[in-house]
Amino acid sequence: MASVHQAFFFFLLSSSFFLPFSSTWATQKVSLALYYEALCPFCSRFIVFSLSKIFSDGLISIVDLRLVPYGNAMIVPNSTISCQHGPSECFLNTVEACAINSWPDVQRHFSFIYCVENLVLANKYNDWESCFQKTRLDPHPLVNCYNSGHGQQGRLKHQFLEL
């Protein structure tokens, strides 16, 4: 499955090279949005083994990456979010949404999300707080976002904006 994702991602990046050249185009980045689920094994593998390469090989300089940790979730009648892989996934989706909100620089929030998703692959996602130390990011902005409910509101907003 990863090879399909890699091929699709390569197509997204390489297809822009066939567009007519202009000075405006030369300064624009390729927009890439990834809607994913925190506990989806396919999503985790893609983030850790494929998407991370755009940082190590320098492609991030031409990519406007937008991560949306929402995936296959639904709003149920009591206005709460139900996630495909259960409450732990909803929790981690919100944590990752708060990471994006807390550290808007893609390099910073991706390092945290990469760490969490790597723990998912090792089936140690309950140790997600260790990612603060591993990435040397201050936990306070993320914890404040989570406790304020802002992470949940942001996820609900994505659901309605994308319809």
TrEMBL record:
Keywords recorded for this protein, A-Z: Glycoprotein, Signal
InterPro entries: Interferon-induced_GILT (IPR004911)
Pfam families for the chain: GILT (PF03227)
Signal peptide, first to last residue: 1-26
One of the record's GO molecular function terms: oxidoreductase activity, acting on a sulfur group of donors, disulfide as acceptor
Family: Belongs to the GILT family.
Protein name: Gamma-interferon-inducible lysosomal thiol reductase
Lineage: Eukaryota, Viridiplantae, Streptophyta, Embryophyta, Tracheophyta
